[in-house]
Amino acid sequence: MSTSPSTSSAATPSQTVGPFFGYALPYAAGPEVVPPWRPDAIQVRGRVLDGAGEPVPDALLEIWQPDGDGAIPRRPGGLVRDGHGFSGFGRCGTDAAGGYRFSTVKPGASGGGAPYIAVLVFARGLLKPVATRLYFPEDEAAHAGDPLLAEVPAERRATLVAEREGEREYRFDIRLQGEGETVFLAF
């Protein structure tokens, strides 16, 4: 029996954290901030991409937002939903193509800025989630007076604005790094 170190060239894990989001964090009603059948429901969808433009199939997104009048929900119910109301919170894992989809309402303005949805992205290789915002293209006039957007260089603001894809559907792709990287916020 030899006691010399192994000369095997077995691969070691390429990441030290995750992916581990498949158990308990995503839940069936997670992407439905409101049921999709509601007349005021909108669909927000997109993809999470890495620095090479490849999909991130094991990311987890959370959204937080006020209701259509700009009021922030202050009652329990983010996880246990009645199937009719607005919870203000959603959670969705990405699929094999890095895709996600939420059913929600377009938020009203809150705090003097333009309407937005707060987005947290949890993904492999990130020790902490990254935070960003999703703004709406039809609120361009309000964007000019938004305190956060005023701090973002003009050439990067487009990474925070969703694309309208229909009467009630928006696309918001999130690029974690590289060319066209989404603006992320530090807290």
Automatic annotation (TrEMBL):
Domain Intradiol ring-cleavage dioxygenases: 41-178
EC code: 1.13.11.3
Keyword Cytoplasm: no
Name of a matching Pfam family: Dioxygenase_C
Annotated keywords: Dioxygenase, Oxidoreductase
InterPro entries: Intradiol_dOase_C, Intradiol_dOase_core, Intradiol_RC_Dioxygenase, Protocat_dOase_a
Family: Belongs to the intradiol ring-cleavage dioxygenase family.
Protein name, as recorded: Protocatechuate 3,4-dioxygenase subunit alpha
